[in-house]
Amino acid sequence: MITITPSDLERFLHEDDGKPVVMLNLLRFRPDGGRERYFEYIALARPVLARHGGEILYAGDGKTALCAESGQAWDCVALVRYPSRRAFTDMIADPEYHRADPVRLAALSEAVLQPTHPLG
After folding, report:
1. Cα(95)–Cα(44) distance, rounded to whole angstroms?
2. CA distance 17 to 56
3. CA 101 – CA 69 distance, rounded (Å)
4. Cα–Cα distance, 58 to 77 (Å, whole number)
């Protein structure tokens, strides 16, 4: 699934403790130019991300999985830090982000967005 639903956001915000969150992004591109479209999405979304205090900590191409079940290899992995879960939801509600999101949807065939917090 690549579309974030209102119930997804409600569940996500229910766990908001106001602390920063690092979102693990596991991305599978559409075979018909999805990778290129995703770079277009990043160019459109990066200013919105920055305006809401987010930053890309890491992004890299997925290579052959060392240890994974069939179908668990990903084309790209990214770690994106947000000041809080609320900052993430404010970003995706931003009208400028609404112009970028259709490009993201056209680029991806599958995605996982996993919020993480430091251990301890």
Report:
1. 12
2. 21
3. 30
4. 8
Largest CA distance in the chain: 42
Beta bridge partners of 35: none
What is d(CA 38, CA 120) in angstroms, rounded to the nearest whole number? Answer: 34
Task: Output DSSP code: residue 3.
Answer: S
**pTM recorded for the entire structure:** 0.91
pLDDT tens readout for residues 68-92: 787 778 999 999 999 999 999 999 9
Where are the alpha helices (H) located in the chain, listed in sequence order?
6-14, 34-51, 85-93, 95-107
Among candidates 55, 58, 57, 31, which has minimal Cα distance to 45? 55
18-72: pLDDT as tens digits = 899 999 999 999 999 999 999 999 999 999 999 999 999 999 998 877 887 877 7
CATH T-level topology, domain 6-63+77-116: Alpha-Beta Plaits (3.30.70)
Residues contacting residue 36 through CB under 8 Å, at least 6 positions apart: 107
- What does DSSP assign to residue 4? P
